[in-house]
Every structure is written in structure tokens, then in C-alpha cells.
Design a protein that fits this description.
Lipocalin, mainly beta, about 200 residues, TTHA0802/YceI-like_sf
Length: about 200
């Protein structure tokens, strides 16, 4: 049996040999470098738009894309996420058809909504992090600021399947993307709430 002092020395030696990327605040590591694929079944963006009477809300679902964390810059990441307009839903078929038609998203010509960020700061769990990026809708690309918080990290249960869970929010003006139809009755401002899960691939 190994004496207690020897076991303590062995444990400290093993910990010292494990490399770790710094967290966004310089503390213990939150992220392992690598490519994290979006979970398209669990990830969605909820939108809400006020109107003269009530409002409109729904979800963008089934995205594709990833977060890439380079070992050489473990406190930064590249993000590239696409949401198919076809999978957008409000729960009402007639409203879905209107939004996907040529007065709004014009799905036939612009089938995806895309968010990208390059060299973005990684979100921590203590407070929200602002990620500057670009949002492309209806063929128009505009700079946006996404407020994100890391809400959970699941360590590897087997090699390469660590999970990251983020929540976030931002607001955009739809007229900036060529979708100003009906602004006398429906607000130009669209509030977006993000719930995203990524698995290291």
C-alpha cells in the first residue's frame, strides 16, 4: 500500500502534467480546444416581434454549423451557424407561409439565416460576454452584437464528446435586412433568444 505522503506527491505530479487552456477570466480552463458541432435537435433561436395587437413569435430550429477553438488561441473561437428558413415555425401554418414568402424572408431565394464570428471571445459562466459578429438574412449581411453566457460544461464521458451549453440574446431591426413590410402595424425590432448546445466532434 502506498503511504499517504507518497500518494499526495503522486497526485500533485499528475495534476501538474495535465495541460489546460485558460478560461476567459484567466482562471481554470472551461473549454478544451477542438471543433464543436451544433446539436441541431437541441438548439433553437426564439424570435418575438411586437404588433399593434399582440405580436408574432416563433423558432428557428435544426441548424448546422460549429464552434472552432484553436489550441494556439484557447481564449478565442470562430463561430459559423446556419438556420434553414424552411424549419422556422410559429405554430400557425398561414403565418409561417407569410413569413417564408417574398414579403419577408423570401425562402425561395434566401434559404438560410447565418451567424458568423471570427476570433470571438469565449463566454464565461459568471457574466454575459458580448460577441461581435455578422448576421446574414434575406441576402443582407449586417454587424451584430450577441450577448452570450456559458450555462454548462459536460466533461468528456468518452474521448471527444464534451458538451457546451450557451444561452444568449440580441435584437435586430428587420428593415436593415430588406424586410420592412408592414412596419405600420408590426414593430421593426425583433428580439432573439438563443439556446445552443455543442458537442466536441
Amino acid at each position: 500500500m502506498i503511504p499517504r505522503t507518497a500518494r499526495a506527491i503522486l497526485l500533485l505530479s499528475l495534476i501538474a502534467c495535465v495541460p489546460a487552456a485558460a478560461s476567459p477570466a484567466g482562471g481554470p480552463a472551461l473549454y478544451a480546444p477542438g471543433r464543436y458541432a451544433v446539436d441541431n435537435n437541441a438548439t433553437k433561436v426564439h424570435f418575438h416581434v411586437k404588433a399593434l395587437v399582440g405580436g408574432y413569435e416563433g423558432d428557428f430550429t435544426q441548424p448546422e454549423g460549429m464552434v472552432m477553438i484553436d489550441p494556439a488561441r484557447p481564449e478565442r473561437a470562430d463561430v459559423d451557424i446556419n438556420f434553414p428558413v424552411e424549419k422556422m415555425t410559429t405554430g400557425d401554418a398561414s403565418t409561417d407561409a407569410m413569413l417564408k414568402g417574398d414579403s419577408f424572408f423570401d425562402m425561395a431565394h434566401f434559404p438560410t439565416v447565418r451567424f458568423t464570428a471570427r476570433d470571438a471571445p469565449l463566454a464565461g459562466s459568471d457574466s454575459a460576454t458580448t460577441i461581435p459578429g455578422e448576421l446574414t438574412m434575406h441576402g443582407q449581411t449586417r454587424a451584430v452584437a450577441l450577448s452570450v453566457r456559458l450555462t454548462g460544461v459536460t466533461p468528456d464521458e468518452a474521448p471527444g464528446i464534451a458538451t457546451l451549453h450557451f444561452t444568449g440574446s440580441m435584437s435586430v431591426e428587420r428593415s436593415h435586412y430588406g424586410m420592412g413590410f408592414g412596419r405600420l402595424f408590426v414593430s421593426d425590432k425583433v428580439d432573439l433568444t438563443i439556446d445552443a448546445i455543442f458537442h466536441r466532434a
